[in-house]
Design a protein that fits this description.
single chain, 83 residues, mainly alpha
Length: 83
């Protein structure tokens, strides 16, 4: 069996086949929407990550800060509870 190119035949690409234009449009559309969806989820994940980082940096406190805050709160609360 000879190579089809040697015979002078052209190899058809999938787009060149006799596929109705509607199905091609549908395929293009579905690929487009999938890409959009993928991009949207990627953006969403990125936004979530940024929010988490912001909240962590904004509200995170070191252990010594935490201890001093707790002791300050205790100092304020205990006199009120004694009354």
């Amino acid at each position: 069996m000879q190579n089809p190119r040697e015979k002078g035949l052209t190899i058809q690409k999938p787009q060149e086949r006799n596929i109705p234009s509607k199905t091609l449009e549908k395929r293009k559309h579905s690929v487009k929407t999938l890409k959009k969806r993928d991009h949207a989820t990627q953006n969403h994940r990125e936004r979530e990550r940024r929010c988490a980082n912001y909240l962590e940096s904004r509200y995170s406190t070191s252990e010594t800060e935490r201890r001093s805050l707790i002791s300050a709160l205790k100092a304020v609360i205990q006199p009120k509870m004694a009354n």
